[in-house]
Amino acid sequence: MARIPESEIERLKATVAVQRLVEARGIELVRQGADWLGRCPFHADKTPSLVVSPAKNLWHCSGACQIGGGPIDWVMKAEGVSFRHAVELLREGMPAVSASDRVVRVSTVPKLPAPVSPDADDRELLRQVIDYYHDTLQHSPEALAYLQSRGLNHPELIERFRLGFANRTLGLRLPEKNRKAGAEIRTRLQALGLVRDSGHEHFNGSLVIPILDDHGDVTEIYGRKITTHLRPGTPLHLYLPGPHAGVWNREGLAGAAEVIVCEALIDAMTFWCAGYRNVTAAYGVEGFTADHLAALQQTGTERVLIAYDRDAAGDAAAAKLAKQLMAIGIACYRIQFPKGMDANAYAQHVQPATKSLGLVIRQAVWLGEGLAPSRSREPAMIAADPSPIVPVPIAPASVTPFLAAAVDVLPVPPEASPPDVPPAGCRPRRHRRVRRRSPRSARRKS
Fold first, then answer.
1. In the Cβ-directed half-sphere of 368, how many Cα atoms lie within 13 Å?
2. Which of 23, 68, 271, 371 would suit a FRET pair with 308, their CA atoms being 20 to 30 Å apart?
């Protein structure tokens, strides 16, 4: 389950007034010193036993209930909803909470507006869910922080690819399954693969990346778990049930003679954020599909740079893909990261990513036989970054030799030149070897 950030919980406790919530239910409060008293709605209260303390933003029943808490606890008790549901209600400003003082033991009626329409067809239903996840991401600090931690912070990325976040709140906005409308819409979402047999959201706790066709319709969805404390064996990577369909970033392939093919979408977005828009991704090492092949052929791709992970599985899959593509006349090269790394890890360890990824693109290894076809030494990109390549200090030791080669590609500013390097065109100065005497030999000489 996607966890609610502690900062968000504390914000609600501090900014939502308990007194306002109590009065919104029609409960009359009378001031008594620093507190306010009223009749408790949770039991047959003949004399006022509900105490509201504005200074502490707390409430308490001193009568038969002997319960209390803050604004979230009040909504849970008064509306008959879960903790998560109460938080979502407070985030929305309590739009559908009744002003009646009637207490609901367990609510089966959604109190938040539904993001999907029951009369929408399957295509539109998928789009509506993706739109809801997209909106949720933009109000989820934990999901935005995850993108930032992966270096995926381009200002256009989220909107361009309709990225989203599934945090289990979709189900809170649907009618319960014990009602006809709820059973129908949940059954349809289950058939589409968005809801599991258990009733839980399939992509719960995941960054959601939809694969869209040329008309903006959803053909596939990828989910990447970002929550911690997962149960052992929980898969980090999720897709819709059934065969993969569609190609991510088809627009970026149009008219590109050279296309970068990554193993995963996070890696492909890493290239995209660094300025290399002619990139797409397979669905894992065995996930290059007929749709990918057709897209490359339709767009007239001449060369493919395979940017799979630099591990045994990635190397084997890259060789297999190269054989398949070269059989139909598409030249193939292997982008080689340091051993054990992928595009995203490499781009974060060697910054700026525009330069470091440009380096591995230029140095891609020809996978065919004989001489490699000629290709531009400058990778296609949308903008140049004048910053030099700088290895991040936390880079692992296995990356160091690779980074040394990266730094040598670019000119070193004069002020950063090593003091022992002679000016260009000068012969290096020879240093005489000085023989040091031991103390014993020094005594003999004397």
1. 18
2. 371
